[in-house]
Amino acid sequence: SLTIPMAVVRWQDFDQDLYLGATAVRPGQDPYARNKFNQVESDKLRMDRSVPDTRHDHCRHKQWRTDLSASSVVITFHNEARSALLRTVVSVLKKSPPHLVKEIILVDDYSDNPEDGALLGKIEKVRVLRNDRREGLMRSRVRGADAATASVLTFLDSHCECNEHWLEPLLERVAEDKTRVVSPIIDVINMDNFQYVGASADLKGGFDWNLVFKWDYMTLEQRRARQGNPIAPIKTPMIAGGLFVMDKNYFEELGKYDMMMDVWGGENLEISFRVWQCGGSLEIIPCSRVGHVFRKQHPYTFPGGSGTVFASIQSRLEMKKRLGCKPFKWYLENVYPELRVPDHQDIAFGALQQGQNCLDTLGHFADGVVGVYECHNAGGNQVPIQSKVLNSLMSGVAAEHWVMDSAVTLGQFK
Ligand SMILES: [Mn+2]
Fold first, then answer.
1. What is the 329 CA–ligand 1 centroid distance (Å)?
2. How far apart are the CA of 140 and the centre of ligand 1, in A?
3. Are 234 and 204 in contact (CB under 8 A)?
4. How far apart are the C-alpha atoms of 185 and 199, rounded to whole Å?
5. Please, what is the Cα angle at 101 between 154 and 37, to 5 degrees?
6. How far is the CA of 80 from the centre of ligand 1 (A)?
7. How far away, in angstroms, is 374 Cα from ligand 1 center?
8. 246: which strand partners?
9. Distance between Cα 268 and ligand 1 center (Å)
10. Which pTM was predicted?
């Protein structure tokens, strides 16, 4: 078996072939089986391959502040293809000014092979933490954030490639205002051939009433307004997922992540609602570009499924009160006015039931707080809510209480 060399090496001196050789796709094996992307194509690439500079021309002449604080980069993974994970790490080190990356914290969420992460621990600045059981994305990210020693956190997925000067524009926005949570434009790494393709700069993150993330094309008006300054930050109702920069203290003040969320996915909605409703803002920074492998399917299983969502939201509701977070109605009117609120024909009525418990207003009609109560099938406090929102609750997306806090209010839109 391999021994883990403890001597630290520069990324340039890391033995890519030795690292990838152990998990290569063998002849006859399906290259998509393990990762739901083409691992053969991923493995062929050099760890520091060059990708096209997809930034707007204006970004190339821009001077970034030189007094920025360093960031801890937190990357969580579970059974990631070694080549994709290594390219993520190397692109961070290669494409960032060294003084702005204090460390890269890899959180291995109990991958089958502990050496996937452990072997990368010999690369300069890389620290590896391994969970001793599956924890899921949120608790893994929080573990990485808690271990971070820099004052700014940068979260990345484990199948990314950072582009030229990706980090400086993000850190600059956060340095100016720590309540900004900022993300790059996410370029597309093709899951079949691993070509790097620039994404449109005219998109914002949004969602539909099934609480599923989607990209919204800017309106003509919004695009016209940007013509004078095409690289200005873009306020976005939602971040796409795992790629963002946030002040560490602010992350903590705002309740980190919902530690009761077991699943992977849906966390971007939860943190997006929370940031906006509790006084912060979300931005896409056009001069920052990071490529990401978009897949059609999730490669991982979800241990625990969507079990404990309702039983566990009490502490989050208390936190919302403590932080003085605004209701969802405010978010709809001020952050996401483009979202069409479902009209009559979209709405079905009924109570939401989970086991013996039903979603219940517990009599709090005025502040819109909801909780769980034993089902009584008598209507009353067990409020009617939009069937589509209900579906998302059932599917285990744990972002719903940010929407449900105004389930009653929403009813008034009818
Ligand atoms: Mn991803």
1. 30
2. 15
3. yes
4. 7
5. 55
6. 10
7. 38
8. 153
9. 12
10. 0.83
What is the full per-residue pLDDT of the chain (414 aa) written as tens digits?
555 556 899 999 999 999 999 999 999 999 999 999 999 999 999 999 999 999 999 999 999 998 999 999 999 999 999 999 999 999 999 999 999 999 999 999 999 999 999 999 999 999 999 999 998 888 999 999 999 999 999 999 999 999 999 999 999 999 999 999 999 999 999 999 999 999 999 999 998 877 788 999 999 999 999 999 999 999 999 998 889 999 999 999 998 887 766 655 677 888 999 999 999 999 999 999 999 999 876 655 545 444 434 445 677 788 888 999 998 889 999 999 988 766 544 433 334 444 445 554 443 333 333 444 455 544 444 433 433 444 444 333 445 566 665 433 333 222
Q: Which residues of 183-201 are buried (b: 16+ CB within 10 A; e: fewer)?
A: bbbbbebebeebebebbeb
245 and 171 in contact (C-beta within 8 Å)? yes
* CA 189–ligand 1 middle distance (angstroms): 11
CA angle 284, 288, 290 (to 5 degrees): 100
| CA of residue 74 to ligand 1 center, whole Å | 14
Ligand 1 center from residue 351 Cα (angstroms): 34
CA 302 to CA 312: how far, in whole Å? 18
> Would the CA dihedral through 24, 28, 34, 37 be positive or negative?
positive
Integer CA distances (angstroms), 359 to 337, 344, 390, in order: 27, 22, 10
Ligand 1 centroid, distance to 19 Cα (angstroms)? 22
> Which amino acid, one-letter code, is at 259?
M
Distance 159 CA to ligand 1 centre (A): 6
Cα of 292 vs centre of ligand 1, distance in Å, is 7
